[in-house]
Amino acid sequence: MEYYLQKTYYKTASLISNSCKASALLAGQTAEVSMLAFEYAKNLGLAFQLIDDVLDFTGTSASLGKGSLSDIRNGIITAPILFAIEEFPQLDAVVKRGLDNPADIDLVSF
């Protein structure tokens, strides 16, 4: 899970958090306020990505603008899968096989 959060920070949250920090600094705010802006935006970016990952399971192709389950179909392991593995350890072997089999995708997306 820690790797997922780090990847998510670099993929999504870093742009938002550093932009907010820079905006605060450019607006003449203190270093403390700038870091608070950074932390707030970092958490906002992480939350945004987590919601996006959940929508991959719960949304429809029409609402997402892409196929549902596209992450796991492309071999991308996201938070819902990681939480499912914690709850159902037998899924770990399925995920490690690479999810090439459509039956595996059905099993993981229960």
TrEMBL record:
InterPro entries registered for this protein in UniProt: Isoprenoid_synthase_dom_sf, Polyprenyl_synt, Polyprenyl_synt_CS
Alphabetical list of Gene3D superfamilies matching this protein: Farnesyl Diphosphate Synthase
Cofactor(s) essential for the protein: Mg(2+)
Domain of life of the organism encoding this protein: Eukaryota
Keywords recorded for this protein, A-Z: Isoprene biosynthesis, Magnesium, Metal-binding, Transferase
Keyword Isomerase in record: no
GO MF annotations in UniProt: metal ion binding; prenyltransferase activity
Any GO BP: quinone biosynthetic process
Family membership: Belongs to the FPP/GGPP synthase family.
Stated name of the protein: Solanesyl-diphosphate synthase 1, mitochondrial
UniProt organism field: Vitis vinifera
